[in-house]
Write a structure and sequence with these properties.
seven-stranded parallel β-sheet; alpha/beta
């Protein structure tokens, strides 16, 4: 087990400032936000990534995950998504995921986390799931080539929210390059017992998010001990 802290909590600081602060807290692992204001791939040249590697070495930090969930650089928390009706919008998400796989490989990180499809809106579940699988088929080859896993993160109010929905999705994925980013708070918000869900999904877990959630199960991440 390797504990890390996410740069998501330091969005008022640059990536390099965030790395320094996380190391200063005593962590030896870091999850990097693969989006602005931190490491949005199109913003980083090879020389920039070399500087990131130097900073990681300086602060003795290991990248445990490249969080490729949000796309604030061109959209918001969920959009562009894997399941939008417009192909050009879906292509943005696919391109972002492939870019993040390449960055993860450069940084020596063995996995990235991605959203579970996206908001359903007026789509049928069957249609949305088909689009999600089609999109995944366009990123799995690179993941396999680089030996970097794509970890799907179930999220409240998105296509995949809970244990049953993830298992239904993963049974139709034929590649070992796809797994699960297990966010304990998300499963709690979905009405599940996180410990039971973890045991049931353990074979696919590649990375874990820990946060506190209020007893109301409202999806609002809290500091540990405040929920």
């Amino acid at each position: 087990m390797f504990f890390a802290y996410s740069t998501n909590a330091f969005v008022k600081f640059s990536l390099f400032e965030s790395l320094e602060k996380i190391a200063g807290l005593g962590f030896r692992g870091v999850e990097i936000m693969g989006d602005r204001p931190h490491l949005y791939p199109p913003d980083f040249t090879a020389a920039d990534l070399a500087r990131v590697k130097e900073a990681l070495k300086k602060y003795n930090l290991k990248v445990t995950n490249l969080n490729s969930f949000t796309l604030f650089a061109v959209g918001d928390t969920y959009l562009p998504s894997w399941i939008e009706p417009e192909k050009q919008r879906r292509d943005i998400r696919i391109r972002h995921t492939n870019d993040c796989l390449k960055v993860a490989d450069v940084l020596g990180c063995k996995n990235i986390s991605v959203p579970p499809g996206g908001p359903l809106n007026t789509q049928s579940r069957k249609s949305a799931m088909s689009l999600f699988h089609q999109g995944m088929e366009q990123v799995i080859p690179l993941a396999e080539q680089l030996a970097v896993k794509i970890l799907v993160e179930p999220e409240p109010d998105l296509l995949i929210e809970n244990t049953a929905e993830f298992k239904s999705f993963i049974k139709n994925v034929k590649s070992p390059a796809v797994g699960l980013n297990f966010d304990m708070g998300h499963f709690f918000c979905a009405g599940e017992d996180p410990s039971a869900a973890f045991e049931e999904l353990f074979e696919w877990v590649g990375h874990v998010h820990l946060e506190d959630i209020a007893a109301t199960r409202v999806h609002n991440h809290l500091i540990a001990g405040h929920g």
